[in-house]
């Protein structure tokens, strides 16, 4: 190829890159690890958590031939892992397991770094995993860490269940009702999982320190563990909420999750307090909006006539200390995705397009160098 | 007597009210279901028209950016070769059903029918029928969501397949082909896990054969994307075999498994190094755990000096990870009590 042609090709490539014209998401530099929340897997590869009913995992690329069980909105050479950890356990346990799985994947593939997208408790596990991997490799291993609907500052639901509030006969039964019977498998500890998701140490007499406050102190947003930190926040009114969560919201509990105070001043299990009005789109059925921001608040821009995309909501600023967000970061409803806690993963029923949602996160990760 | 009759009448009236209430309030057909039904009863498809040229850069854009006629032309190009395959049919219908309701909330079923008629006039009715089935299947999932979560795997599978066959007939096997394949693989692993220790080579060969049989020409692509998970799945299933081996035997067995699963020399070497590191780590965990339990069971509990000693030992044995292990212990988690899964942790 002569130099004129070479220059033309380079110019065209640059134009395509800068104008952002591309078919769905670009390929990320580093593989993307999907970390699931409580419960999690329905089968070996976890297709149903981050996927659809036909066995498609959102991280599975389509090749050049027409494939039906793949995500057509991501690059055909995208690399991704659906990591599997114990369904019901504390994030100290699950985070170490996640680090092991990532280390295994890196060893098998030769990848030098990864990005992590964690849903719900998966976003909390990811913070621990990033710290473990940093310690094991002596360098930063996670590039971008994105949480979706994660209760970084606790969930009142967890405390309500542990307190055996009206309608709850046992912690394990309540979790099974919400997340299915995976809790009865070996290695699960529903009580440890629930204690993890309460902001304060749940019991001062059990000789251990649990809860999100202590966890956040140990595994806070930290640039040496991951280069980029961002979060997507979900909330929805009851009528559109998943039946299982609807039951939780209306049947025996409804979070008031959009008030501000330092720490858990009303002792409901999550930092902040309510604003006195329940049922005003301030939670996603399980987690209040005041618990979910970590790092940047990301805005999901849905588009019926074009590919969805993610932007940073710069007006709210960055949550660098998970135990001390500002009042606006805890109470603002801007950039909140109007979906319930389970809509954004493959749990039916919903009309949410998970494939495109996660493709847009992948493309955003590329824009952040991952 | 009068009193008894009064009670009887009250009960009867309540039952009638309840029955009528159920009849009135039971979920009826929604507008979309009625639209599907009426279009299918009419049996009319959109008249065939001359479609515009295929937009050159359609792959770079979303389907809904185009006119209905252009969408039909793109669908011909994208799905035409495989349109007889039910999995391709459902993928196409899903693609349309994702966005059409957002753009045409009141009459998306009619628009869908129009597009199907323009794109595939000979198959339009069949495709519309399948769209109706898919819509009804999604409603079924929605109304059974809470119930299926509490079912056993087998009962859930049976219920879902019954409904799939009812709505899609034999096509269900092709639509959920991936799920069927993964179920076969899951069942194979389960059988291997339940079988007695021994014959690791035969187990590995049986597993590799199952993967090849299930995925056929897609096998290399599957392995490219899922090699680690599929290897790990096997490792978990043969723990009985790995646990009774000596370190040297186990090391070579793990290498053999990874090689059979298609890992190259560089990956095998990286794994050898990691396995050695993990072996050392587990031994250190054991040493540390013994020391900790010796100090913590002392009469009067641990002194500040003991704590210091333990901190120093943690640092010496676990280096950078020592502080993390200290955090874990404060929360009640002790790694040494974890179950070791050879080849995985």
From TrEMBL, chain A:
GO molecular function, one term: transferase activity
Keyword Endoplasmic reticulum: no
Keyword DNA damage: no
Keywords of this entry: Signal, Transferase
Signal peptide residues on this chain, from the entry's feature table: 1-23
Protein name: Acetyltransferase
InterPro entries: AB_hydrolase_fold
Top-rank lineage group of the source organism: Bacteria
UniProtKB/TrEMBL annotation, chain B:
Bilayer-spanning residue ranges: 7-25
Lineage: Bacteria, Pseudomonadati, Spirochaetota, Spirochaetia, Leptospirales
Organism expressing this protein natively: Leptospira ellinghausenii
Superkingdom of origin: Bacteria
Residues covered by region (Disordered): 280-308
Official protein name in the record: Lipase modulator
Keywords: Membrane, Transmembrane, Transmembrane helix
């Amino acid at each position: 190829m002569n130099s004129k042609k070479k220059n033309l090709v380079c110019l065209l490539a640059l134009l395509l890159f800068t104008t952002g014209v591309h078919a769905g998401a670009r390929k990320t530099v580093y593989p993307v690890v999907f970390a699931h929340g409580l419960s999690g897997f329905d089968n070996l590869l976890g297709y149903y958590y981050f996927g659809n009913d036909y066995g498609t995992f959102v991280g599975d690329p389509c090749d050049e031939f027409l494939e039906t069980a793949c995500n057509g909105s991501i690059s055909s050479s995208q690399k991704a892992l659906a990591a599997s950890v114990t369904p019901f356990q504390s994030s100290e346990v699950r985070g170490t397991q996640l680090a092991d799985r990532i280390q295994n994947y890196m060893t098998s593939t030769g990848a030098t770094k990864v990005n992590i997208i964690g849903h719900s408790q998966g976003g909390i596990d990811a913070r621990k995993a990033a710290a473990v991997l940093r310690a094991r490799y002596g360098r930063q291993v996670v590039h971008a860490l994105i949480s979706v609907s994660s209760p970084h500052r606790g969930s009142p639901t967890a405390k309500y269940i542990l307190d055996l509030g009206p309608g709850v006969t046992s912690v394990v039964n309540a979790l099974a009702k919400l997340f299915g019977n995976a809790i009865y498998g070996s290695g699960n500890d529903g009580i440890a999982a629930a204690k993890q998701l309460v902001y304060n140490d749940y019991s001062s007499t059990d000789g251990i320190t649990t809860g999100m406050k202590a966890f956040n102190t140990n595994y806070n947003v930290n640039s040496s563990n991951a280069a980029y930190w961002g979060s997507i926040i979900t909330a929805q009114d009851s009528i559109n909420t998943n039946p299982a969560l609807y039951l939780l919201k209306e049947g025996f509990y409804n979070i008031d999750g959009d008030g501000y105070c330092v720490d858990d001043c009303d002792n409901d299990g999550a930092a902040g307090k309510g604003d006195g009005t329940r049922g005003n789109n301030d939670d996603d059925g399980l987690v209040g909006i005041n618990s979910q921001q970590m790092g940047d608040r990301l805005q999901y821009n849905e588009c019926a006539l074009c590919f969805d995309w993610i932007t940073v909501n710069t007006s709210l600023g960055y949550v660098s200390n998970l135990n001390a967000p500002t009042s606006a970061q805890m109470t603002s409803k801007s950039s909140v995705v109007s979906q319930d806690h389970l809509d954004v993963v493959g749990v039916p029923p919903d009309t949410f397009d998970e494939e495109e949602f996660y493709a847009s996160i992948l493309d955003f990760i590329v824009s952040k160098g991952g | 007597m009068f009193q008894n009759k009064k009670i009887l009448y009250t009960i009867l009236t309540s039952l009638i009210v309840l029955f009528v209430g159920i009849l009135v309030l039971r979920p009826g057909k929604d507008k979309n279901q009625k639209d599907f039904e009426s279009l299918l009863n009419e049996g009319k498809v959109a008249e065939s028209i001359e479609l515009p040229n295929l937009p050159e850069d359609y792959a770079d854009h979303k389907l809904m950016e185009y006119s209905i006629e252009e969408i039909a032309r793109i669908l011909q190009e994208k799905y035409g070769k495989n349109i007889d395959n039910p999995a391709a049919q459902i993928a196409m219908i899903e693609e349309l059903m994702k966005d059409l309701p957002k753009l045409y909330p009141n009459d998306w079923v009619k628009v869908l029918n129009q597009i199907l008629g323009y794109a595939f006039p000979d198959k339009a009715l069949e495709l519309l029928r399948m769209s109706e089935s898919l819509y009804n299947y999604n409603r079924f999932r929605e109304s059974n969501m809470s119930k299926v979560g509490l079912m056993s795997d087998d009962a859930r599978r049976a219920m879902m397949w019954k409904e799939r066959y009812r709505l899609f007939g034999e096509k269900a096997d092709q639509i959920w082909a991936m799920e069927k394949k993964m179920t076969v693989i899951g069942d194979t692993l389960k059988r291997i896990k339940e079988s007695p220790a021994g014959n690791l080579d035969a187990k590995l060969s049986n597993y590799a054969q199952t993967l090849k049989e299930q995925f056929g020409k897609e096998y290399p692509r599957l392995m490219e994307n899922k090699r680690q998970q599929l290897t790990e799945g096997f490792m978990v299933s043969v723990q009985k075999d790995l646990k009774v081996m000596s370190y040297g035997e186990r090391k070579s067995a793990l290498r053999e498994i990874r090689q059979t699963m298609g890992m190259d020399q560089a990956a095998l070497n990286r794994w050898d190094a990691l396995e050695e590191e993990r072996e050392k780590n587990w031994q250190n965990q054991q040493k540390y755990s013994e020391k900790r339990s010796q100090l913590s069971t002392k009469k009067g509990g641990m002194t500040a000096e003991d704590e210091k000693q333990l901190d120093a030992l943690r640092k010496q044995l676990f280096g950078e990870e020592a502080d993390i292990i200290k955090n874990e212990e404060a929360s009640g988690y002790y790694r040494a009590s974890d179950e070791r899964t050879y080849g995985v942790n």
